[in-house]
Design a protein that fits this description.
The chain is built from 15 helices and 15 strands. By secondary structure, the chain is α/β, with parallel strands linked by helices. Helix 2 packs antiparallel against helix 4 and helix 9 runs antiparallel to helix 11. The chain is elongated. About 0% of the residues have low confidence. Participates in both transcription termination and antitermination. Keywords: Cytoplasm, RNA-binding, Transcription, Transcription antitermination, Transcription regulation, Transcription termination. Belongs to the NusA family.
C-alpha cells in the first residue's frame, strides 16, 4: 500500500511537468536504485517494476539460498531457514525473489528519495528548456509582463517559463505594465548554475528583420530578401531589400500604399523611423540611396580604406547628416563605408561664418543643437526653413527665429 501511495504522489509530476512516460520511468528507477544502493550496498540483484500511469510499483530482491550459517553476503544470499519462511519447499542453491516494501527503506530514506526525485525532474526540465529555447534563438517570441524591475522586465510565457528583457535590450520609448504582451527575439540562453536564463531583445537588428518577415508576405515567401538591417533603436533604421523578380518593387512592397504595411512595424518599435532602400552592388548608387533624402552631387570613393567623400550642396548637408547625425551614421553602417560630407557651392570660405563665432549672442547649447543636424555655419542655417528647423531640433520657434535674426544682421552689416 505504501508503494502505491508514494508512486501516486510521484506520478503527479508527469502531469505537472509534461514528462513523457518513458522518461519518468527512467528517472524513477534511477532514484530508487540510488536509494537501494545506500540501504543494501548494491542494487545489482534488484528488479524494479514501475507503472506511473496506474500509480503502482514493485521492488523485488533476488537472492540465492545457502545452508544455515553459511551466509556471507546478506544482500546476495539467504539462509535456508529464512527462505522457507517465504516458501516452505525452497532448497539450497535455488533463487529466491522477495518483494521489498518502501517502508523497509526507512522514513528518512523515503524523504531523501522524494527530494532526489524532485531534483532529477528539475534537472530534466532545465535541460529540456535550454534545448527548447536554444533552437529558437533569433526567432520572434511573445510573453506577458510578470514583473517590472529597474534593470529588467521579467516576462512569463504560456508555459510558465521565465524570460528576461534587460533594460539595455529595450527600446527607449518602451513602457510596460504587468499583464502587457511583449514581442522581441530570443537573443540568448545562458546557464546560470543549473537553471537556464532566457534573454529577450527588442533592440537587435534581427528583431526588425524578423518583423519584416512576419508582416510582409513577399519577405516571408522569399520573393523579397532583406539584405541588411542597421538601427539606432527607437530613433532610426535603414533596411536594404532586394528581389530576384524584376516585376516586384521591393521598396514599394515593403512600405505599402501610404505606408500601410510598414506602419505596424514602426508602431511596434516605438515610432522608429524606418528607411527602406533598394539594395545594389553598385557602391556609388548604394551610398546615394543610403543617404536619402539628401540629393548627392557626386561621390569620390576610396575602396582601399573603405571611405567615401560625398559632395553635397549646402542646403542638402543637413538632410544627409540627419537629426543627431543618425542618417549619415546609419548610411555608413549600411554601406560599410566611412562617409565624409564635403560642402560645395558658389560661396567661398570667407562668405560664410562658423556658428561658434556667435557665442556672445547665441548660447552654446543652441549652437550644439544645430551642430547635431549638421548645421555649423551661419549660411547653412539661413538656407533652412524655420518650421523645418523646429521639427528637426529640440528648439522652440521663437529661439530659432531669434537665431535667424542674429545671423541675418551679420550679413546685412
Amino acid at each position: 500500500m505504501e508503494n502505491i501511495a508514494l508512486i501516486e504522489s510521484f506520478s503527479e509530476f508527469k502531469d505537472d511537468k509534461l514528462i513523457d512516460r518513458v522518461t519518468l520511468m527512467a528517472i524513477l528507477e534511477d532514484v530508487f536504485r540510488n536509494a537501494l544502493k545506500k540501504k543494501y550496498g548494491s542494487d545489482d540483484n534488484f528488479d524494479i517494476i514501475i507503472n506511473p500511469d496506474k500509480g503502482d510499483m514493485e521492488i523485488w530482491r533476488n537472492r540465492v539460498v545457502v545452508a544455515d550459517g553459511e551466509v556471507e553476503d546478506p544482500n546476495q544470499e539467504i539462509s535456508l531457514t529464512e527462505a522457507r519462511k517465504i516458501e516452505p519447499d525452497f532448497e539450497v542453491d535455488e533463487d529466491v525473489s522477495e518483494e521489498v516494501k518502501l517502508i523497509q527503506l526507512g522514513r528518512r530514506a523515503i524523504l531523501a528519495l522524494r527530494q532526489n526525485l524532485i531534483s532529477k525532474i528539475h534537472e530534466h526540465d532545465n535541460t529540456n528548456l535550454y534545448k527548447q529555447f536554444k533552437d529558437i534563438i533569433g526567432d520572434i517570441y511573445t510573453a506577458e509582463v510578470h514583473h517590472v524591475r529597474p534593470k529588467a522586465v521579467i516576462l512569463v510565457d504560456d508555459e510558465g517559463n521565465e524570460i528576461v528583457l534587460p533594460k539595455e535590450k529595450q527600446i527607449p520609448a518602451d513602457f510596460f505594465r504587468k499583464g502587457d504582451n511583449v514581442r522581441g527575439i530570443i537573443e540568448s540562453v545562458e546557464l546560470k548554475g543549473n537553471k537556464p536564463q532566457i534573454i529577450m531583445s527588442r533592440t537587435s537588428e534581427t528583431f526588425l528583420e524578423k518583423l519584416f518577415e512576419q508582416e510582409i508576405p513577399e519577405v516571408f515567401d522569399g520573393l523579397i530578401t532583406v539584405k541588411k538591417v542597421v538601427r539606432i533603436p527607437g530613433e532610426k533604421a535603414k533596411v536594404a531589400v532586394d528581389s530576384y523578380d524584376d516585376r516586384i518593387d521591393p521598396v514599394g512592397a515593403c512600405v505599402g500604399m501610404k505606408g500601410s504595411r510598414i506602419h505596424g512595424i514602426v508602431r511596434e518599435l516605438g515610432n522608429e523611423n524606418i528607411d527602406v532602400i533598394n539594395y545594389t552592388t553598385n557602391t556609388q548608387l548604394f551610398i546615394t540611396r543610403a543617404l536619402s533624402p539628401a540629393k548627392i552631387s557626386s561621390i569620390k570613393i576610396d575602396e582601399e580604406n573603405k571611405r567615401a567623400e560625398v559632395f553635397l550642396k549646402l542646403e542638402e548637408v543637413s538632410k544627409a547628416i540627419g537629426r543627431g547625425g543618425h542618417n549619415i551614421k546609419l548610411a555608413g553602417f549600411l554601406t560599410g563605408y566611412e562617409l565624409d560630407v564635403i560642402r560645395e557651392g558658389n560661396l567661398v570660405e570667407d562668405e560664410d561664418v562658423e556658428l561658434t563665432e556667435f557665442t556672445d549672442e547665441i548660447d552654446s547649447w543652441i549652437i550644439e543643437e544645430f551642430a547635431k543636424i549638421g548645421l555649423d555655419t551661419a549660411r547653412s542655417i539661413l538656407s533652412q526653413d524655420i518650421q523645418d528647423l523646429v521639427r528637426r531640433t529640440d528648439l522652440e520657434e521663437e529661439t530659432v527665429a531669434e537665431v535667424m535674426r542674429i545671423l541675418k544682421e551679420e550679413f546685412e552689416e
